[in-house]
Amino acid sequence: MFTGIIEAVGTIKAIDINAKGARLVIATNTLDMGDVKLGDSIATNGICLTVIAFDSTSFSADVSNETLTRTGFAEYQVGAHVNLEKAMLASTRFGGHMVSGHVDGVSEIKSITHNGNSIEYWLTMPSELAHYIAEKGSITVDGTSLTINALSDDCFRLTIVPHTVKETIFAHYKAGTKVNIEVDLIARYLERLLLGNKEYGKTDEPKSSNINEAMLAKAGFLK
Fold first, then answer.
1. Contact 175, 109 (CB under 8 A)
2. What is the mean pLDDT of the segment spanning 188-207?
């Protein structure tokens, strides 16, 4: 589990994509590797990767074909910059929101404009994910926890403050850049609970759950 607060910007040192998947070597730059162990998780542009080898300045990880299909990794090249965050600890300050590191899809930067000292980014909203994306809700973009500030029919807007631009790879974005997005984890699980077995063509609801829209509205989760 992660918080979406980026700890360092790394660089892809090597990438080997083949029929079985891919293997990456990431230069960690300023990321503290002093407490990293084999098998630890490091979110790389929002993708939870398992450390299979490391030293004080880099780590290696395998990427499955599933991950290559669902993310922008297939287009990454040596020298590309990536956001890095180590898995959170129980004692970690929870500065962002709950981020699983399981990317839901890929979005594209449509426009970038300055507004005062901040920068506004409009991104495409994949139709299959649109119902999870709400104004003033949370979303993860390349591993960064962000607030959605506006919606259109097929896009959403982010307003990024200078500190976030400086500490992440947002400074490298331009119109046409593809980014990994992860929708709000709670919204995804609420939908699954409400659907029950309907999603799989079954009509019987799970008998162990009494969660429904009326109960969620009464508890304040729905307006």
1. yes
2. 68
Reported pTM: 0.85
Summarize pLDDT for 182-196 with one digit per residue, the tens.
999 888 888 888 887
Q: Write the DSSP string, 154-166.
A: SEEEEEE-HHHHH
Domain ranges within the chain, ordered by starting residue:
8-86, 105-183, 186-218
In this structure, CATH architecture of domain 8-86: Beta Barrel (2.40)
CATH number corresponding to 105-183: 2.40.30.20
Sheet holding 58-63, edge to edge: 47-50, 41-44, 81-86, 8-18, 21-27, 58-63, 53-54
Q: Is the pLDDT of residue 202 over 70?
A: no
8-86 and 105-183 have identical folds: yes
- If we measure between CA atoms, which residue out of 14, 39, 46, 38 comes closest to residue 27? 14
User: What CA–CA distances, in Å, run from 189 to 88, 118, 154, 220?
Assistant: 21, 33, 23, 16
